[in-house]
Amino acid sequence: MFLPNRNVLHGEPLDAADAETLGIAGADTVEHFLDHRHNHAMTPLHALPALAGELGLGTVHVKDEGFRLGLGSFKALGGAYAVFRLVLEEAGKRLGRHVDVEDLDRAEVRSVAARMTLACATDGNHGRSVAQGAELAGARAVIFVHAGVSDERVSAIARYGAAMVRVDGNYDDSVRQAARVAAEKGWTVVSDTSWPGYERIPGLVMQGYTAIVREALRQLGEPPTHVFVQAGVGGIAAAVAGHLAIVLGAARPTFVVVEPARAACVAGAARAGHVVKVAHDQPTVMAMLECYEASQVAWRVLARAADAFMTVNEDDAVSVMRRLARPAGSDPVVVAGESGGVGLAGLIRAVAENRTELGLDGKSRVLVINTEGATDPLRYAELVGMSPADVLAGRLAAEATP
């Protein structure tokens, strides 16, 4: 499925609140917080010249979030950042003075954090970030996971001391239960999706993702002409598209949102002109993108800043995982999880089917994001035919060869 953005808001400036969230000052705040993370490092940007040549494009670059802050996913930037902001705001209220990120380890701030419980629903990666942020800040985390979340991913979250709650149903069911239980118990929900009356915290999560765009623009020789980003509820796509629209203005790249055909809730919103709950049947291998209702905030941004919406099939996602693990020519090895390479899968399909509509040609400079590494190593090995450790060993061996 390929759907140009025909929304009446397409190309209009972002809503004032969203522009504030995703703008330059917000991104500055994110970088200030990241400067105080002991394991923060800019993630790599890989050029894929062999693939670009095959596709008839000028350049293809992949921003690799597979090792972000030790969590293996771009979501390391969002949930933990929102947790830190919320803990510091609560500490400021209780202590009657301004507190900043460098105060997180002070006894009086940690005393406030210890009385806070942060809750969220997750497919895996967002929950790890919230749990890690809570552990670092000294708060308690309760993470709700639906029936489709693997035991491997549940264990990865629980390592950060979070209490885990299994929920029958899918991701949307876990979101509703997390919100209900948190309201009953007076906990704070740190969700990466939004709904009417609940927007600020998901906005903070999205704000955390602006670090990816900042880094990529610094690493690229010149801005991209096209960007393909995958979507679950739409948060990462909206953060990237929104920040690019603000900092590049009329020079912004053509932006394409890519989703699993089995869980295309952002495309559903694009068709309807507003957020809708899309029907679902079989689960998708792209587990981190299996969402059936888009975030209200994300859709508000994407209605203005996205240029097209498209879907990819199950085989497309797995094929890209394998291609990145066994690249052609001088292209580097990249470990991409089931959802990590979906933007690239969209690019490959778009070149075959929508090249003219998107203006993809030999001068195009395309940016995609590997949003996750092998966050479920067993599933990765099953799909790729090699363990992530063996894939990385091959990369290290290639890099060591003179």
UniProtKB/TrEMBL annotation:
GO terms for molecular function: diaminopropionate ammonia-lyase activity; pyridoxal phosphate binding. The keyword RNA-binding does not apply. Pfam families: PALP. Residues 40-371 form the Tryptophan synthase beta chain-like PALP domain. Gene3D superfamilies: 3.40.50.1100. InterPro entries: DiNH2opropionate_NH3_lyase (IPR010081), TrpB-like_PALP (IPR001926), TrpB-like_PALP_sf (IPR036052). Keywords: Lyase, Pyridoxal phosphate. Its cofactor is pyridoxal 5'-phosphate. Its EC number is 4.3.1.15. This is Diaminopropionate ammonia-lyase. It comes from Mesorhizobium erdmanii.
